[in-house]
Design goal:
The complex is a heterodimer of chains A (314) and B (333). Chain A has 13 helices and no strands. Chain A folds into two domains: 53 residues; 256 residues, MetI-like (MetI-like fold). By secondary structure, chain A is an all-alpha fold. With 333 residues, chain B is mostly helical. Chain B has two domains: 50 residues; 268 residues, MetI-like (MetI-like fold). Chain B has 13 helices and no strands. The longest helix of chain B is centred in the last third of the chain and has 35 residues. Chain B starts with a helix and ends in a 7-residue tail after the last helix. At the A-B interface, α1, α3, α4, α5 and α6 of A face α2, α4, α5, α6 and α7 of B.
Chain lengths: 314, 333
């Protein structure tokens, strides 16, 4: 009998050890997996900084690309193109995004509000290449040619869900007392929204814009079938030509957005697949510029948001 | 004169009352814009449906049907999309298979084990993985990841798993010397969807009430037993939602995959051979498509991609929403 009890006892101790061992192993495994996931992040960042950093110089920013196989030259056309396309995207996406967010924040439970938030969720999950096909069908086909305008529209569709959602969240964070005070003073709803709620939430909303812009600036797939690429794109030349021809500002602006433009991600994609080593080196430099832009925007906006939430909590 | 002035004032008054001091136009504008956002979503599907008419009418369902000898022939205007569907499904499913344990591990570490001061920086770093542009992944993939990781791993898998019957058909080599293969695409996708799975399942774990953990530990369970037998079953449908969101991201990922998958229409079922995905055939051929039918068939592939991701998103939102509803705190998604 006592022998039996001893056996049970020993069994218990052994099982206890086993359970503790399993606990230790699995818990350290989760830590290891976290480290494992961060390996590619640092590998990519460090590698791109080294390879890109050794190939970046002033020419890179101020010259147009040279013909294939020639050394030197820069990616000015791509930089200008990216600026044009992201500017257009912000122009198309921010005003409607903010207005829709006002609706979603004010009337979250009406049928339209529920459908709006649902569509926003769905839109954010649509692959960017599908958005590109949509912009192609909706703009490039009717206009008959590729253009920066179509690229801007495609990126706007990609930015829209992010803008709506962050703006809505930020508007909801504004204390209800502010709203009630403004309405109580006799301000109409629109004035309360635009001159009380919006300024109160503006810093958060702007970080949302920046995050959406950073995401859009790195998108390649939708530009393949909208802006196409154009290595001779040179805003300076278009503006000089326009001024000499005494054209109006609108005409000049239209001729900038109404033609195929280059962009940084597109240039990176094309250069990476070329056999010329100098093009590949430029691809690394482009990757560095893109990555730094995206990472800096991400880190700073997060720091900013964190600071603000800490303040508002304290 | 006095009379006319008062009447005009009253007209302004009634006008202003009708507009409620500008509130009616304001409401009209925000309702209109909100409706436009909804219409935009419908328009994406509608446009792709209309533009792909040529292929839909000519080939019907045979365009998408599984086939052993796929025929993708722009010269003779004959198109079948099966190899791309298969490539997308295979690479995405393997990416989920690799990313799920890693993402769950990260979520568990971040929500249960990690000291508070380390939690925010670590979450940021994991989420930064999602912020790096896809083309940068592709460039790094071609010049670093393929030769340094994928090619050796591929050779190893071909020598070991490739010898096992049945399972071996997924790993018949040899892997191309460059490493460009479906395996490479799966691994790159794994890296890219880890942040999605980790972030969503971390939020699911954070939303589980502390009483569940306390009850389990009071019964004598170890930390790991609490996680495995209490938290994971409790958050099951939320984790499933995370997986589906990750899958949606993997299916639509274009640039990085196009740069490492090798872009070959032939290639059987093996992970170690070059392949193609739906997104990458569109990226590669759209700008060069000459015939209307070629463009139409690429747009139809886009339509299929749209429908799949739409359904997956609806399902995922529903699952995550269900978890958020049954817990007192709100799960942030």
């Amino acid at each position: 009998m006592s022998h039996f009890a001893e056996l049970i006892d020993r069994n218990h101790i052994a099982r206890g050890r086993q359970r503790k061992a399993a606990n230790m192993i699995m818990l350290s495994l989760t830590g290891l997996l976290t480290v494992l996931a961060l390996v590619p992040l640092f590998w990519i960042i460090i590698y791109v900084v080294i390879r890109g950093g050794s190939n970046i110089n002033l020419d890179f920013f101020i010259h147009l690309p040279r013909p294939m196989g020639m050394t030197g030259g820069g990616v000015l056309s791509a930089i200008e193109g990216t600026l044009v396309v992201t500017f257009l995207a912000a122009l198309f996406a921010i005003p409607p995004g903010v207005l829709a967010a006002f609706y979603a924040a004010r009337y979250p439970n009406t049928p339209l509000g529920v459908t709006l938030r649902f569509s926003t969720d769905v839109l954010s999950g649509v692959p960017s290449i599908v958005v590109g096909l949509f912009a192609y069908s909706a703009i490039v086909v009717p206009m008959g040619h590729y253009s920066g305008l179509a690229g801007g529209a495609a990126l706007a569709v990609i930015m829209l869900p992010t803008i709506i959602r962050t703006t809505e969240e930020m508007l909801k964070l504004v204390p209800a007392t502010l709203r009630e005070a403004a309405l109580g003073l006799g301000a109409p709803e629109w004035k309360t929204s635009l001159s009380v709620l919006f300024p109160a939430a503006s810093s958060g909303i702007i970080t949302g814009f920046l995050l959406a812009l950073a995401r859009a600036a790195g998108e390649t797939a939708p530009l393949l079938m909208t802006t196409l690429g154009n290595e001779r794109f040179d805003i300076g030349q278009i503006i000089r030509g326009g001024l000499q021809g005494h054209k109006s500002v609108l005409t000049i602006f239209w001729s900038i957005v109404n033609q195929p433009v280059d962009s940084l991600p597109l240039a990176l994609w094309k250069y990476a697949q070329q056999p010329y080593p100098e093009r590949v080196q430029q691809a690394w430099a482009v990757a560095l510029v893109l990555m730094l832009f995206v990472l800096i925007v991400n880190v700073f906006t997060r720091l900013w948001i964190q600071n603000r939430t800490r303040h508002s909590k304290g | 004169m006095l009379k006319s002035k008062s009447s005009s004032r009253s007209r302004i008054g009634s006008l202003s009352r009708f507009f409620q001091h500008g509130d009616r136009p304001w409401q009209g504008i925000i309702i209109l814009i909100s409706a436009l956002v909804i219409i935009l979503m419908l328009a994406i599907g509608g446009m792709l449906w209309v533009q792909s008419a040529g292929t839909r009418i000519k080939f019907g369902w045979s365009f998408l049907a599984p086939t052993a000898n796929p025929n993708w022939d722009p010269v003779n205007n004959h198109f079948q999309a099966w190899p791309f569907l298969f490539g997308t499904l295979e690479t995405s499913l393997f990416a989920i298979l690799f990313a799920l344990p890693i993402g769950l591990g990260i979520a568990i570490f971040l929500s249960e084990l990690c000291p508070a001061w380390l939690r925010t920086p670590l979450s940021w770093m994991v989420e930064l993985l999602a912020a790096i542009p896809s083309v940068v992944y592709g460039l790094w993939g071609i010049f670093v990841f393929l030769p340094k990781v994928v090619a050796p791993v591929g050779v190893f898998l071909g020598d070991t798993l490739g010898q096992i019957p049945l399972l071996g058909s997924l790993f018949t080599g040899p892997i191309p010397a460059s490493g460009a293969s479906r395996l490479a695409a799966s691994l790159i996708l794994t890296i890219m969807i880890i942040p999605t799975i980790a972030a969503v399942s971390r939020d699911v774990f954070m939303a589980i009430p502390a009483s569940q953990r306390e009850a389990s530990k009071a019964l004598g369970a170890t930390e790991w037993e609490t996680i495995w037998q209490v938290l994971i079953p409790f958050g099951r449908s939320g984790i499933l939602g995370a997986v589906i969101l990750g899958l949606g991201r993997a299916l639509g990922e274009t640039m990085a995959v196009t740069m490492v998958i090798g872009n070959s229409i032939q290639g059987g079922a093996s992970l170690l051979q070059a392949g193609y995905t739906m997104a990458s055939i569109i990226a590669n051929e759209f700008a060069e498509a000459v015939s209307g039918l070629h463009t139409d068939s690429l747009i139809e592939i886009g339509l299929v991609l749209f429908i799949i991701t739409l359904l997956l998103n609806v399902l995922a939102r529903f699952l995550v929403w269900r978890v958020a509803r049954q817990t007192p705190q709100q799960a942030r998604v």
